[in-house]
Amino acid sequence: MTKGGCEMQSNLLPQELRCEFLENPLGVDIASPRLSWRVAGCGMVRSWRVRVASSREALLHGSADRWDSGMVLSDDCAVCYGGSPLTSGECLWWTVAVCDEDGHCSCEAEPAMWEMGLLSPADWTGSWIAGAGLLRSEFFLPAAPVRARLHICGLGYHEAYCNGRRVGDHELDPAPTDYEARMLSVTHDVTALLDAGHNALGVMLGEGLYGQ
């Protein structure tokens, strides 16, 4: 049988691709993220090949301009990215194919993606705001954005709004930490929430464990 134009020689099928155990995550801040997958079908995995590209189109056209693992003799279903150094905000697309003990190989999995977060302290151009539970800022965009991300670090808990619409669906973000040692940030895709012209960003803060 065929899948996406590929003649399948093996009944093994890699699927459920994950980066750092998340589906298509944003804001990954690990220099060499862990890529993992699950294999469906009967048989044993003998080897696999991971390909990573700078765009989905490049990947589908056979390019792996960021990393090609080559065929790796292993039955593991995970590997750390081993290509050229990644940069803040970079978007990567990847796929994997597996081969069974008879040397028959599967088609490549449906491509998945991940997007890097802010990797260096110098990438954080904002400043801390203290003493206010409700924050609001207005800004002007000459055109609707092609891609827009909100990177936010709110001690305690926070909810963010763009133009009156809730950003994301998380509750009790970010996870509590020892705030003297570590502070977590959250990345949201806000492209669809912003318009050409005047925009407003609002944040509602909650103290959580930070205020105790």
What would you note in describing this structure?
By secondary structure, the protein is mostly beta strands. Helix content is 2%, strand content 39%. The chain is built from one helix and 16 strands. Strands 5, 6, 7, 9 and 10 form a five-stranded antiparallel β-sheet that branches. A hairpin with a 2-residue loop joins strand 13 and strand 14 (165-166). It is elongated and about 65 Å long. The model has no long low-confidence stretch (mean pLDDT 91).
Give the gist of this structure.
The chain has about 210 residues and is mainly beta. About 0% of the residues lie in helices and about 40% in strands.
What is the H/E order? EEEEEHEEEEEEEEEEE
Percent strand: 35-45%
Shape: elongated
Using the CA coordinates, give the radius of gyration.
Answer: 21 Å
DSSP helix count? 1
Structural class: mainly beta
Biggest sheet descriptor: 5 strands, antiparallel
Roughly how much helix do the residues carry, as a percent range?
A: under 10%
Strand elements, count: 16
Mean pLDDT across all residues, rounded? 91
Please report the distance between the alpha carbons of the first and last residues.
Answer: 61 Å
Poorly predicted tracts of residues: none
Question: Which keywords apply here?
Answer:
212 residues; mainly beta; five-stranded antiparallel β-sheet; four-stranded antiparallel β-sheet
Describe the SSE topology:
Elements (H helix, E strand, L loop, with lengths): L1 E2 L2 E2 L5 E7 L14 E7 L4 E9 L2 H5 L6 E2 L3 E2 L4 E3 L10 E10 L11 E4 L18 E8 L7 E4 L4 E6 L2 E2 L19 E4 L7 E10 L6
Antiparallel strand pairs: 1-2, 3-4, 4-8, 5-6, 5-7, 5-9, 9-10, 11-16, 12-15, 13-14, 13-16
